[in-house]
Amino acid sequence: MRFGITGNTNKDSLWEPVSGFISRLNDDALEYVLHPAVAGGLAARGVQLDEGSIASDADGFLEAADLILSFGGDGTLLNTAHLVGRREIPVLGVNFGRLGFLAHTESAGVARAIERILSGDYVVNERLALTAARRNDRKLPEPWALNEFTIQRTGETGLLAIEVHVDDRLLNKYWADGLIISTPTGSTAYSLAVGGPIMAPGCGGILINPIASHTLTVRPIVIPEDSVIDVRVVDPGKPYVVTADGVAQVFEEESPTIRIQRADHVVRLVTFPDQDYYSTLRNKLMWGARKGASEPGSSE
Question: Which of the chain's ends, N or C, has fewer CB atoms near its CB within 10 Å?
Fold first, then answer.
């Protein structure tokens, strides 16, 4: 197995652990390939590299890697997922960020993670992705998302009226600051911040969640993952932003209808049998933590 190594080259904290990890791979005579941006950063810091382990470009990196290690946080892992695209190469997220819902493995545990991968003691989870296109088939700049698509008003724009059809049937006309169309993976991202529910990765659904709805009875809704969602901002001439995992495009003419549906590929994330989703929620969101309080039934 050849490991691909990429990461957030803007993080100063990246270089020391990655350098140490490469030394460990060399000592164990394990095959690896470096993303050219990572290789350039290491070389600039005086790290001696084997020329044969450096990819010439992103395509060469992906061609050479059997499994990719993404050093950074969840944002870095999202970028890595988009780098991989439809190739479906498994990705292990190594966390240097804060929450780390997607990047489960801490940097101190990466050597042990490699041992477990080589022994077959790991799991590849397939995560739902979404794709979007205008109804006239003109693609958005970033045509798929692992977390979510959003439709949002711009700073100078007032309230948006957003009409949503599901499988050619009208769901609702939302009056809101925007709308989030999320996968289960994305339910712990932007959607969670605006009051959406958490969806376990394997539950199979798509979440539609308004942003600051001006109708008090409107709530998030989960629909089947094979649904076809047509979204249109019905205010002619109002500028707004469509984002796919944070990548944005502004439409300034009369709104097209944007069709969002399940992508024809999945994102494959590497985890381990003892890393369950519910413990991640408890640990990352501090569920059950009662600062300064004793456990029920204790004498303290």
Answer: C
Catalytic pick from 74, 177, 230, 245?
74
Q: What is the pLDDT of residues 215-245, one digit of tens each?
A: 999 999 999 999 999 999 998 778 888 999 9
Q: In what order do the strands lie in the sheet with 178-182?
A: 221-223, 206-211, 178-182, 148-153, 240-244, 247-251
Q: 5: helix, coil or strand?
A: strand
- Look up the CATH number of the domain holding residue 168: 2.60.200.30
151 and 90 in a common domain? no
| Total-model pTM | 0.91
Per the structure, the count of domains in the chain is 2
> Is 12 among the residues known to form the active site?
no
Find the distance separating the first CA and the last CA of the chain, reported in whole Å: 53
Check if the beta carbon of residue 288 is closer than 8 Å to that of residue 282: yes
